[in-house]
Amino acid sequence: MVIALVMSSETCYVHGMPRKTDARTRAIATAERLFRIQGYTATGLIQILEESGAPKGSFYFHFPRGKTQLAEEAIDQYVAKRIAVLRNISANTTGDALNFVHQIFTTFAAEMVASDFQYGCLMQNLANELPALDAELTKRVARGFVDSTEIIAEHFRGCGFAPARASSTAAALVAALEGARTIARLERTPAIFEALADVSVQRWSAPEG
Predict the structure, then answer these.
(1) Do residues 125 and 39 make contact, with C-beta atoms less than 8 angstroms apart?
(2) What is the C-alpha separation between 36 and 144, in angstroms, rounded?
(3) Percent of all residues in the chain with a pLDDT value above 70, rounded to a whole number
(4) What ranges make up the beta strands (E) of the chain?
(5) Which overall architecture, per CATH, does domain 6-205 show?
(6) What is the DSSP letter of 189?
């Protein structure tokens, strides 16, 4: 009989009996992963339930509006993690635009390699399926891009960039990162991130004047 308590997003056992209290967390994590790999339309509830191990009854208890509500929470979780990563990089490169940009490219490239080039950006994947999304999902995706781009612009303003230049540079950087993810997945190499860093980092992070 298992006596120890083991907690994770995958399993929770107490006295040898599996607990179902993490069904919601597992469903969100599984949806986020699958949306990043194969998109929203291609991901069905049956696959999410099977891969998360969440009982169907508890799923609808936690997500009474079904897949749409689950997608909303998966987007929110993904955006929160993305913002946390960007804030951490910003905190580690205070006042240093050059190193900030370089670390962003390096971090995104490392994630692609770690996922064996399976993970796209959840927001980008869903944005490519806008006709299939309802208005609330569309708003969440748009807000996710705006909020995470603002973190980058905020860092550039802290490096002395004028507000307009900080915003345009942040938008260009995000666009480059999203495009790089697509190319990296196709080519199964992080080379595009390295190329962007080599070509763009000096121009984007150079002081004004």
Answers:
(1) yes
(2) 15
(3) 85
(4) 6-7, 12-14, 17-18
(5) Orthogonal Bundle (1.10)
(6) S
Closest CA to 169 of 158, 178, 180, 161: 161
Domain boundaries, the chain: 6-205
**Model's pTM, two decimal places?**
0.84
2: tokens are 């298992």
Which residues does 81 contact at the CB level (< 8 Å), separation at least 6? none
Closest residue by Cα to residue 136 from 60, 189, 75, 185: 75
Q: Residue 157 and residue 79: Cα distance in Å, rounded?
A: 22
pLDDT tens readout for residues 153-186? 999 999 999 999 999 999 999 999 999 999 999 9
Task: Give the neighbor-by-neighbor strand order of the sheet with 17-18.
Answer: 6-7, 12-14, 17-18
Q: pLDDT by residue (tens digit) across 37-66?
A: 999 999 999 999 999 998 888 899 999 999
